[in-house]
Amino acid sequence: MHAQEASYLDVIHGDDGGWNPSDYAYHLTRRARGLPLWFSLAVHGTDAYRDAIETTLDLARTAAARVDAEPQLELVREPDLSIVLFRRLGWSPEDYSRWSRDLLAAQVAFVTPSTWAGETVARLAFLHPGTTIEIVDEIIATTR
After folding, report:
1. pTM of the shown model
2. In this structure, is residue 10 part of a structural domain?
3. Crossing angle, helix 34-44 and helix 46-68, to 10 degrees?
4. 95 lies in some domain
5. CATH number at residue 118
6. C-alpha angle with apex 72: 54 to 108, nearest 5 degrees?
7. What are 27-43's pLDDT values in tens digits?
8. Which domain holds residue 130?
């Protein structure tokens, strides 16, 4: 079995904890990660990687500031990298799960609940340098 355990993967595994066919697939196992990275560096160069990383870090800082400006939201911690953790005041773990499902069903975003010090919180993970602050604003608007 190739299962991985992390709170942000719970949405994939479902609430029933039952059999999940993805746990028996190879996509969560290790692969030869060095070769695709080497090819990408050879084609795009290190400057493109540096710029992409800086873009996602800037977006995380901007998103954290937007979260901090909302009265119903509370930033859990300042982002170190491209992850922004925040809580929606008054929400239960079920509210976070419902919100996550609704965002995905509406094709707005894939935002999974996570945990911080045992508390369910929201987790924005910025990986793609093409993600815009407008998308972040659209996500935040759904918490009002």
Report:
1. 0.74
2. no
3. 100
4. yes
5. 3.90.1150.10
6. 55
7. 555 566 678 888 999 99
8. 46-141
